[in-house]
Design a protein that fits this description.
It is a single chain. The chain is mostly helical. It has one domain (11-119): Up-down Bundle (3 helical TM bundles of succinate and fumarate reductases), CATH 1.20.1300.10. The chain has four helices and no strands. The longest helix has 30 residues, at 90-119.
Length: 120
């Protein structure tokens, strides 16, 4: 039996690996986020409490990792589905990948901008 090679324009092994890594990051960071936001602060979810939580550098880092992992995981999953059905040529797959990277970086920039008062 011959092993199949995962070609780059059909997804690639790095996309597959990062999809699994971001899934684990999403589970861990989402658990941390939910515990600190909803379990430890029951009844105290207001802007002052959120500002106090984000003043902690560790929790801000968790939120940024959660944002980046969520964006990558979602857009890479969308890319895989679209490449399975519509974007079968190398040129179209590369165009799709570039467009999704630009969209992902724009979302990441917007999310980081929203957290910027607590980062700086």
């Amino acid at each position: 039996m011959r092993a199949e090679v995962i070609s780059t324009h059909r997804g690639g092994v790095w996309s597959w690996l990062f999809q699994r890594i971001t899934a684990v990051l999403l589970i861990v960071c989402l658990a941390i986020h939910l515990i600190f936001t909803h379990i430890l602060n029951i009844g105290e979810l207001d802007s002052a409490n959120v500002a106090a939580r984000l003043a902690n550098a560790g929790l801000t880092a968790v939120d940024i990792i959660l944002l980046a992992a969520g964006i990558y995981h979602a857009l890479n999953g969308l890319r895989m589905v679209l490449m399975d059905y519509w974007f079968t040529s190398r040129t179209r797959a590369l165009t799709l990948t570039i467009v999704l990277w630009v969209v992902g970086l724009a979302f990441m920039g917007y999310g980081t901008w929203a957290l910027w008062p607590w980062i700086s």
